[in-house]
Structures are given as C-alpha cells and as structure tokens.
Design a protein that fits this description.
The complex is a heterodimer. Chain A is mainly β. Chain A has two helices and 32 strands. Chain A has helices spanning about 320-345, 415-430, and strands at about 5-10, 15-20, 25-30, 40-45, 50-55, 60-65, 70-75, 85-90, 95-100, 105-110, 115-120, 125-130, 135-140, 145-150, 160, 180-185, 190-195, 200, 215, 220-225, 235-240, 245, 255, 265-270, 275-280, 285-290, 295-300, 305-310, 375-380, 390-395, 400-405, 410. The longest helix of chain A has 24 residues, at about 320-345. The two termini of chain A are about 35 Å apart. By secondary structure, chain B is of the alpha/beta class. Chain B has two domains: about 35-105, no CATH class; about 130-345, Rossmann fold. In chain B, α2 crosses α3. Chain B starts with 7 loop residues before the first helix and ends in a 9-residue tail after the last helix. Classes of the chains: A mainly beta, B alpha/beta. Chain B: Keywords: Ribosome biogenesis, rRNA processing. Chain B: Its main location: nucleus. Chain B: May be required for ribosome biogenesis. Chain B: This is Ribosome production factor 1. Chain B: It is found in: Nucleus, Nucleolus.
C-alpha cells in the first residue's frame, strides 16, 4: 500500500510491510505455508512509481508484488537455486536484471524464460547495483572480484575495472572482498565497502583505476552501505551492528549510529528526508535521524531480515485525525468487500484484495487462496491515545476468526517506560 | 547549665543531630535565662541574640571533619531512622490487625525482576512465525530426533590444573562428551575435522591465570556459536554436602526463564547438548537457570520422598555464564556475522532491562 513506509524481506520467506506512522507491520507471503526456500534475498522497486516490488528468493524465483493490491501478482523463474542466490535484482524498463552469487548477470525480457544478455562478472559476486542515472549501467563486486562497471548494451567488456590496492610494504598482495557499492548521484563516481573494513571511492573518469579515496572504519567486515541525500557522506554498517557516517571528502568518521546489536544486512537512506533505515540479524528495523544520529523508531519483526526498501513517504508525517478518517474509509471498504469476498471464499481484510485478475501472467505460481496468509493489522479502534504503541496483528483464518498477534513496537527511547507499563497491562489481560 | 558549656564552634559542627537536643536546650536555656538574666549573660548571650536559630538546612553529617564525631553522628542518625521505621511498622501492624478482614492486601515489594522493563521480543507461545523460525533453524535436526549429540570439549592452549579438572568433570556431566588436549591447534581447522567425525558440538573453555573464564560453544554442522563469560566455577570437591559422583545416565534438562527470542535461541543451544530421552533413567538433572542475564548451571540428583516432597543433592560442578555474543555460523570471530553482541555502554545503562 502506498501507506507503507518500508518493505523488508525476511529469511523465513515473508515480505513485511511496515508503516511507522501508523505503527503497523503486515506480513505478506506468496504461499499459505512458510518455506525457508523462499528466503527473500533481493528486493527492488519494479518501476519509477513505487507501486510494485520485485522480490527475489533463494529458490530462483522473482515474484512481483503489488503494493496497491497487497498480493503477489506474478512470478518468474530467473535462475536455478544451485547457481547461488540473488545478489542483485533491478528493473530495467520492462525487463529485469538479475545477478547470482556465482557471477552471472542476466537480463530477462518480459515473458521469456531465457535471458537476453548474459555477462560473466567474476567467480563470486556479492552485490550488483544499478546506477540511478543510467539504468543500463550496473556495478558488480565480490570476494576476490574487483569492482566492475558494466554497460548492459555492450556486455562484452566492462566499462571500468578497478585495480587492487598496492602491495603492502612486505610486497604481499592485499586481499580484496567487495561487499556493497553505490553510485554517487551527480557524478560518475562509485563508492564501495569491503570485508576488510575499508571504504573505497572509485572514479571511472580519472585515469587511475585504483581507489581515489580510502577510508577505514572499525575492525569487522562492512556489510552494507548507503548514500544520504546530501552527497558528501556515506553510511556504512558492519557485522557487529556498528553503523557510522563517513565523510567522503576526507575519509573521516563523522559520527556513529547506535542501537543495532546484530549484523546489519541492509541499510537505506530516505530519498528526501534525513532518515536512515537499517535491518539485520537482530530482527529489528531501526530508523535513525541523520541530523542528530538518534534512534527515532524501532520495530521488532520476528524473523531475521535480509533486505530493505524505503518508500518515499514521510514516516513522521501522519497525525491522528487523518488516522481516524482512514479508519472509517477502510472500514467502509471492508464492509463493501465483505459481500464480494463471500463469493470468493476469502479474506476480508483491507489489505487483502485477491482477485482473479492476477492470474493471467504465465508464471503465476500462487493461487488466490494462498494470498491470505496475511497477518492483517487492524488499526485498533480502542487505541486512540497518541502514544498508543501496541497494535494487534490479526491472523485470520478463513472462517473469519481472529487470532491476536501482537507486534511490539517502540517509538524512540523516551517512550519505552510508558510502553512497558501498557505492555505489561496488555499481556496480563491477554493471558487472563 | 552543663549543656551551655559547649563552645559555639562546636555547635556549628554538631548541629544536625543535636538539633532536637540543642533546640530543647535552647528552650530550657531561654527559660532559665529569662529567670537569671544577669548571671548567665556571658554564656547565654550568644544564644539569646538568636533565640529561634534555624540551622541551615544544607548541613549534613559528612561535613564534620572529625572522623570519630562524624561516625558518632552517623550512628545516631541511623539509630533514629531505625527507630522511626520500627515505630511505623508497629503502627501499621496494629492498624492491620484492627481492620482484620477489611485490611488492604499486603504490598508486594519491588525487586529488580518485578520492575523488569517489558521486552518486546518476548516470545508468545502462539506465535506462528516464531514457531516456524524455530522449527527450521539449525537445531531442527536435533529436535526432530535425527541426530544424537556428541560433544568435543577442549581448552585454550596449555591449560592449568583447575581448567583440566573442570573439563573432566564437565565430561562426566554431559553424556557422550570427549575431552581433547588442545596442543595449539587453530579452531577453524579443528571444526572441519569434527564435522567429519560426526561431532555436534564443540566446547572450548578459555583459561586466564589458571582459572577458567570463557566458554565458546559452537554447534557443529553450520550452527550458531555462542561465546560466554564463565565465572564462579566450583569443582566437585569444593561443593559442600554433595552427593556421590554422577553416573553415566542421561540427565534431565531444566531451562528456566529464557523468555525472549534471544533467550529461546540460547535455551535451544543448551538443550541440544543433552540426548533426548523421555524415559528418565537415573535421577539426575542439569539446570540452566537464567536470572538477570546470568545463567546458573547446577547438577543435582533428586529423589521423591512422597508425592509432594523431593530431596536433592548437588553433585557435579557449578558455574555461572554470561552471554557475550551469538554468532551465526561456525566459529569465525573476525569475519562471521553476529546475531547479538553485548555492548556494555548501550545495553547495561538501564538496570531494569535484560536481554535473555
């Protein structure tokens, strides 16, 4: 839905949509039972408007999820599981670019099972990213595979191959392990972070193929990287949950973002606001503000999280009266749908609009029934206090019975005490 | 009159506790002074000019420079407080007895466990997602009865006597455990060999200054690695009133108080150390009790005297553990991905918040 602020992919195969302003988290799954083989490895927007998501899973399927409808609309097979999981997935107009961990970058046209172009990008590619300016340019990098920029229209040779750092003072070759990279908007340059806790900036337009700038942070491998809007800083995170902002002009650490207790798998900065979202193995989504580096929101999502997509909504925007209106509208919608849903034997939650329209794509894998393994989150009625932090997740079965499932959620450190009190009260009630 | 001999400077020091006494003195002095204006003028003059002296409220016992006097003052302060407290208690008790049945219920005293900040990651037993997560995690093979645990216990290089004895005793407590001497081998090289020989756990006891102080517990095929700080190790001969040595029967396992998601993972890690056998033979039980993020390990032998009474004897070593990090994958402290790391400055700032 366009209300969702962030989309996350989990290791259990679930796609989670989180709305920070409404304090809800919704699970979407393409089949009625959870499956580890559907572990979400890559997430990306399917088009310029943020209405559809591409979800790449560990079994080689790329599913399209419609944010408006709240269901998986189609899926296609883009590679075999034995070739490794997806390390990059992007939309290229109406086509798809995927990259597996074994190094095969492929372009898939719509409605075809065979890739149009295939590029061998090395033995092990950890990440592939698309340039936001020129969508046919992608960058790849991995363990002992240097950073390469490819132009998909001329896939024979990379446009730019980075050179490894100079040998150490003992004349030993420096090991090389690229984990994530990003194109700096506005210029031609590329920033990458390595498993040896280095951050490199490359400039393809300059004659030197070695990094233009090298910065070091921490002692643990850097796992994720993201560029905030202001353009001269970069946010990196490592396997111990340390997140930092580095300045790209000098390579110094500007500041550290605290809070994460486990390895951070994905970082993303908001498109317009100074916010950064992070998720990782500690099963939480955290949103920090970049100006004062304080934690603004923290959401507990019960599975380990692999990837993250921030939408361009403002997470701090919505206010109460709007909430109420939306509730009424949605309740009306729910009532409207009730009848139509009866014919289709299905779900009567707002988020679940399963229609048969979805099924006309060739590789539509899931049935309509399948899409109802959704934990629908009611904006609960009673909780109209502003500081109401608890929402009720409803897992409904087809009979319409609601099993309450709670998604605990804290908004910033200050609110914790009140939350805990109300939380305790609530649990007691539930137990009773 | 004897009291007024106390010089003025002393009064300045002895103000707080002698407050009441000095005030009383004042009143009596004033009473006397009014009577005997002329006689006691010299002594009482100073006090008379300030008849109702209000002592500055910021005085405290710690301002007295003389250690003995300060100590005396403090003792008096304490005694007074204790008296007040006892009086209050008696009063309350009387009131309670007087009210009889209508008395309000007794207040529960606040403890740190009572005041624990509610953790949002507490596992709800009905939660499907968490259930699925646990059913398909690295311990699935053990919990589905597909593998039997086989534990390799070793130490850091060159262990001293206490650590060696600790390892031997642990090997008697954990069934199917083998102790191997470390001989300076690298853990990353030992792990593939263990996997080839069907070991399911690798336990490394780290030693510092002849005392065991750390434990690395690595679940073998590809499982999580937990690193603990070990403290308060008591070997068998140091345990008083202990029973005879443990036999080779499989013990039962009790896991107490692992309520959060992280606690669940650690609980499963401990549970998978022992073979699963619902028919308990041998009345031995190993307990892992979590309280305030410390895990206490005890090993007992129990006997049911009748249906309600149990007698227990502690056998076996006793130690406490504190989790320092949980890493996904086998031991790789440099390049592994951590699921949870103890960060003292961030996590230990609130005394009411616990992670396990």
């Amino acid at each position: 839905m366009s209300v969702m602020d962030a989309w996350l992919g989990a290791e259990t195969g679930l796609l989670k949509g989180v709305s920070v302003s409404r304090k809800q988290a919704v699970n979407f799954s393409s089949s009625s039972c959870l499956d580890r083989a559907q572990e979400v490895r890559a997430l990306s927007w399917a088009g310029p408007g943020e209405t559809e998501l591409l979800v790449g899973s560990a079994d080689g399927l790329v599913r399209t999820f419609s944010a408006e409808k709240g269901t998986f609309t189609s899926s296609r097979r883009c590679g075999e599981p034995h070739e490794g999981c997806f390390s990059g997935l992007h939309a290229l107009g109406s086509a798809l670019v995927t990259c597996t961990e074994k190094g095969a970058v492929r372009v898939w046209k719509e409605h075809s099972d065979v890739p149009v172009t295939e590029v061998r990008a090395g033995e092990h590619v950890h990440r592939m990213r698309q340039s936001p300016v020129a969508p046919h340019r992608v960058a790849t990098g991995g363990k002992e595979t240097p950073v390469k920029i490819w132009d998909l229209e001329n896939p024979d040779k990379p446009m730019f191959t980075a050179k490894n750092l100079r040998d150490t003072w003992l004349d030993l070759r420096q090991p090389h392990w690229v984990r994530d990279m990003a194109f700096i908007p506005g210029t031609d340059r590329l920033v990458s972070c390595t498993g040896y806790h280095q951050v490199h900036v490359y400039d393809p337009s300059s004659p030197q193929r070695r990094p233009v700038l090298e910065a070091v942070f921490g002692e643990y491998p850097l796992t994720a990287l993201s560029l905030p809007v202001d353009g001269h800083t970069v946010a990196v995170a490592n396997t111990q949950g340390q997140m930092a902002l580095l300045d790209l002009r000098k390579g110094l650490v500007c500041g550290v973002l605290k809070g994460a207790s486990g390895s951070v798998r994905a970082l993303q900065c908001h498109m317009t606001l100074p916010l950064i979202a992070s998720c990782g193995l500690d099963r939480h989504l955290r949103i920090h503000s970049l100006q004062d580096r304080k934690l603004q929101h923290k959401v507990y999502l019960k599975s380990r999280l692999n990837c993250l997509l921030f939408s361009s909504n403002d997470p701090n925007a919505e206010a109460k009266p709007v909430k109420v209106k939306e509730e009424e509208e949605e309740e009306d919608e729910v009532w409207d749908k009730m009848e139509s849903v009866h014919e289709d034997r299905g779900a009567h939650e707002e988020d679940c609009v399963h229609e048969d329209r979805g099924a006309h794509e060739e590789d539509c894998v899931h049935e309509d029934r399948g899409a109802h393994e959704e934990d629908c989150v009611h904006e609960d009625r009673g909780a109209h206090e502003e500081d109401c932090v608890h929402e009720d997740d409803c897992v409904h079965e087809d009979r319409g019975m609601h099993k309450e499932e709670k998604v605990q959620y804290t908004k910033g450190k200050n609110k914790r005490k009140t939350d805990s009190k109300t939380g305790q009260k609530k649990t007691k009630k539930q137990k009773n | 009159m004897d009291f007024t001999e106390v010089p003025v400077s002393d009064q300045g020091k002895g103000k707080k506790k002698k407050n009441k006494k000095t005030k009383k003195q004042k009143v009596s002095e004033e009473g006397e002074a009014r009577g005997d204006d002329i006689d006691t003028k010299d002594g009482v003059k100073m006090e008379r000019t300030e008849p109702v002296t209000v002592f500055p409220p910021t005085f405290s016992v710690s301002e007295i420079k003389n250690k003995q006097r300060r100590h005396l003052m403090f003792m008096k302060l304490k005694q007074d407080k204790r008296k007040q407290k006892i009086m209050l208690k008696k009063k309350k008790k009387k009131e309670r007895e007087a009210l009889g049945d209508k008395a309000p219920p007794k207040e529960v005293p606040k403890t740190i466990e009572n005041q624990r900040v509610y953790d949002e990651t507490t596992v709800d037993p009905d939660d499907e997602e968490v259930k699925f997560d646990e059913e398909t995690d690295e311990f699935a093979a053990y919990f589905n009865r597909l593998t039997n645990p086989k534990v390799l216990i070793t130490t850091s290089d060159r262990p001293r006597g206490r650590t060696v004895r600790f390892c031997e005793q642990l090997a008697t407590v954990i069934p199917n455990a083998h102790v191997y001497y470390r001989r300076g081998l690298a853990l990353k090289r030992i792990i593939p060999q263990c996997i080839a020989r069907d070991f399911t756990y690798l336990m490394v006891i780290n030693e510092d200054r002849k005392m065991p102080n750390g434990l690395v517990l690595c679940h073998l095929p590809d499982g999580p690695t937990a690193h603990f700080k070990v403290s308060s190790v008591r070997l068998r001969k140091e345990i008083k009133r202990r029973g005879k040595d443990p036999t080779a029967h499989h013990p039962e396992v009790i896991l107490n108080n692992f309520s959060t998601r992280l606690g669940h993972s650690i609980g499963r890690l401990f549970a998978a150390l022992f073979p699963q056998d619902p028919h308990f033979v041998g009345r031995q039980v190993a307990t892992f009790h979590n309280q305030r993020d410390f895990i206490f390990f005890r090993f007992h032998r129990y006997i049911f005297k009748n249906e309600k009474k149990v007698g227990i004897r502690e056998l076996g070593p006793r130690f406490t553990l504190k989790l320092r990090s949980l890493q996904k994958g086998t031991f790789d402290s440099k390049f592994g991905e951590y699921e949870w790391v103890l960060k003292r400055h961030e996590m230990d700032s609130c005394r009411r918040k616990f992670q396990l």
